[in-house]
UniProtKB/TrEMBL annotation:
GO terms for biological process: signal transduction. This is TIR domain-containing protein. It comes from the Eukaryota. It comes from Rotaria magnacalcarata. Residues 605-716 form the TIR domain.
Length: 737
């Protein structure tokens, strides 16, 4: 070691000993000595060598702890360090680097990356002045990106962007060249940090991914490679990861820009690497030093293949790019993903392992997530249904890894058109959906592990028709609050996030008493619902009214009706003085039921879904034309908007005709009316408007024990005659009573 470096290096090593008491004055003095060494360098080469040694010594864990102090961060040494790295970035872009340049380039970038990442999260420090001992049990908050503010300036980012666009996307270097190591490290640093200008780097990184070097990196992966080299890592992992995590403000534009290139590369990549992934056992047989034969697994190949599918998945998140997956040129890619999730060895592996860094788990997770996201394109959804993908997914329902569970269960239900009320693992599914909603909300891109928030809400709206899922969401500590955040956060898209969240909250309001109690106790939710109920909001107002009805108003409304129906109870208390334990209490109840002759009373209330309005209007017309029946028929769907009006109409009706279909069962406005009629013990006549539909779940609970009228389009008169007979029979029974 150079004699001039021995003293400062010795100081660094002494200060880094855990048992040493260190003050900010000690650290600042050390940094002053190091800066003096740099300033006394005889020439640039000597200075770079000195700085290389300093950076190497300061990168130790204990040294980084000492430097995590807001006063120390502003030392001039770090200004010099940042300027030197910028100079080396410029030099690396335009002219060949010397050995000393490359060494300094590597070590300065390493120290800067560690300093920025170490203080990325809020840190604290209890020192008050230069003479206080540094306390590593932090108490007072420090700016979370102070080192990033010093180093990752606009000037630095512009120089990093230039070397990406002008050099690495255009020029080829040997696999272990220092440029791939350093630029890859700096790109990872920029990916990890939040409050920097990522937009400067997006186009240069896209250039790298559109270059031939991306495909070439895959072509050069050798079967015998245990891990990928720096060049391969830069192109197939670090660049795609930056795009996936940091291009959200331009995600559609970037995906469209990459789509043709990445999809075009996919055929060659899958032809080369996919057969390896589909092998049932180990891939290559080799002999070790003891001449013993053993099998090695395709770690690097499998890992790289998973990264490419992750990039495809990112592109598939954009609707305008997603449609390209079904073109004749690229449709085989869907079959290749299906082949991955059908591979027996991979299925067995994901039931034993759950870590995403495990190559089998990563590959399976990436493939099934891609298929999950492709289902949002209607043509691809139909294609996957034809290919029986839902059946293949059933073997993955019990996989250990959460993404595989989530995607496989969702695909099975959607593609098989399973009975929602017969979901096999409703509690696990509810927890998985809440997990993804929570994690996507925490990410600026509103995506997590390839799952977007709007997509998760879209499919949860379907799954929430299952009552067990409703209750699990309601019982979860954060279930209601997560949905409320989605519904009320004005920064989130109204159509794709807020509205679905409101509809899911409405679904959950049909849960059990515990669920309704938790919703009622959520002041933020109920205050906003009351606000919506009092303003003219045609979009959310009706939904808010129905939620309020289920959570608060329905029970109170029924209670008030019962009180009005009951005459004041007469209490007779007979007391036998000879037996003080003998108490006899009798109540006389007189039911004050409205007369059926009253003008505002109805014989029949017709409950129907608006999609079935034509046939229900036909039924209503024939009933009223006979002049024998008074019918309550909500032509304008007022009852969907005002639950109180629905309840009042049912209260005035002797009979409720439930005209149901699959749409009826899926409608919470229809469920609200049917369940209210059932609670109030009205005579119910079920009428099935769809010959092929069989009611399940809540609807089946109401109609199963009753004589159902099946409407046959070919013989409507017969169905109508059956209806008249049932109405008359019920009226006779009411008159007898």
């Amino acid at each position: 070691m150079d004699l001039r470096l021995q003293q400062p290096v010795a100081i660094i090593q002494r200060l880094c000993k855990p048992e040493t008491n260190v003050t900010t004055a000690n650290v600042n003095g050390m940094l002053d000595d190091l800066l003096t060494c740099l300033n006394n360098a005889q020439n640039q080469t000597d200075g770079l060598h000195t700085l290389t040694t300093i950076c190497y010594e300061l990168t130790s864990i204990n040294a980084l702890k000492l430097l995590d102090n807001e006063h120390i961060m502003q030392h001039e040494l770090f200004i010099t360090l940042g300027r030197t790295l910028e100079m080396l970035l410029t030099k690396a872009t335009f002219i060949p680097m010397t050995k000393h340049d490359e060494q300094c380039f590597y070590e300065t970038s390493n120290l800067i990356a560690n300093l920025c990442l170490y203080t990325k999260k809020p840190a604290t420090c209890s020192c008050n002045d230069a003479h206080d001992e540094l306390n590593l049990n932090y108490e007072q908050a420090i700016n979370e990106i102070l080192y990033a503010t010093i180093f990752l300036t606009n000037s630095f980012l512009n120089k990093l962007a230039r070397i990406l666009s002008d050099d690495l996307s255009a020029n080829d270097y040997e696999p272990y060249h220092v440029k791939y190591k350093v630029i890859g490290r700096l790109l990872c640093l920029c990916t990890e940090l939040n409050n920097i200008n990522h937009s400067v780097l997006i186009d240069p990184v896209v250039q790298c991914l559109r270059s031939d070097y991306y495909l070439h990196a895959y072509k050069t992966i050798d079967l015998r490679q245990p891990i990928i080299n720096p060049k391969q890592r830069f192109f197939i992992y670090q660049c795609p990861r930056f795009i996936r995590l940091r291009s959200n403000e331009r995600s559609d534009e970037v995906s469209n820009s990459l789509c043709d290139f990445v999809l075009g590369y996919s055929q060659q990549i899958f032809e080369q690497h996919l057969p390896i992934a589909l092998e049932s056992e180990a891939i290559a047989t080799r002999t070790n030093k003891k001449k013993k034969i053993f099998k090695s697994k395709p770690g690097a190949k499998l890992q790289a293949l998973g990264w490419h599918i992750e990039l495809l998945n990112h592109i598939a998140l954009t609707p305008t790019s997603r449609i390209h997956f079904i073109t004749d040129t690229h449709q085989t890619m869907i079959d290749q993903m299906i082949n991955i999730i059908r591979t027996k060895s991979l299925i067995a592996s994901v039931h034993e392992n759950d870590e995403l860094f495990h190559s089998d788990v990563h590959l399976m997770s990436s493939a099934i997530t891609l298929l999950y996201n492709l289902t949002f394109e209607n043509k691809i959804f139909s294609l996957l249904k034809e290919k029986n993908l839902g059946e293949f997914c059933t073997k993955l329902h019990t996989a250990k890894q959460r993404t595989i569970q989530f995607a496989s269960q969702t695909l099975s239900i959607l593609l098989n058109q399973d009975n929602i009320d017969a979901i096999k693992y409703p509690l696990i599914m509810a927890q998985n959906y809440l997990f993804y909603i929570e994690n996507t909300l925490h990410d600026r891109s509103l995506a997590y592990n390839g799952v977007k928030l709007d997509g998760a809400l879209t499919y949860l709206e379907v799954m929430a028709q299952n009552d067990l899922i409703k209750n699990e969401i309601g019982h979860d500590d954060d279930g209601i609050s997560l949905l409320v955040k989605c519904a009320l956060d004005q920064h989130l898209d109204f159509e794709t996030i807020q509205c679905p969240a409101w509809r899911i909250i409405e679904a959950v309001s049909f849960g059990d008493e515990i669920t309704c109690k938790k919703m009622s106790d959520d002041n933020k939710l109920m205050d906003y619902i009351k606000y919506l109920s009092n303003v003219d909001d045609s979009t959310l107002g009706p939904t808010a009214n129905r939620i309020r009805w289920k959570v608060e108003d329905e029970n109170k409304f029924i209670s008030d009706k019962i009180k009005k129906e009951l005459t004041p109870a007469t209490l007779t208390n007979s007391y036998d003085g000879n037996n003080s334990n003998n108490h006899q209490i009798s109540f006389n109840y007189n039911w004050d039921l409205p007369s059926s002759k009253t003008s505002d009373m109805f014989d029949l209330f017709i409950s129907y879904h608006h999609s079935d309005k034509d046939i229900c209007s036909q039924i209503y017309g024939r009933l009223t034309s006979s002049n024998f029946y008074r019918i309550s028929f909500d032509r304008e769907h007022v009852h969907e908007i005002l639950p109180n009006a629905m309840a009042e109409a049912i209260e005035k009706s002797s009979i409720v005709l439930i005209c149901f279909s699959s749409k009826y069962q899926q409608s919470y406005a229809c469920r609200m009316a049917a369940e209210y009629a059932d609670k109030r013990q009205r005579s119910i006549i079920p009428m099935n408007l769809d010959e092929l539909y069989c009611p399940t779940g809540w609807l089946n609970n109401i109609v199963a024990s009753k004589q159902c009228i099946n409407v046959m389009k070919s013989n409507f008169n017969s169905s109508y005659a059956n209806l008249i007979q049932q109405i008359d029979n019920i009226k006779k029974q009411i008159n007898i009573k």
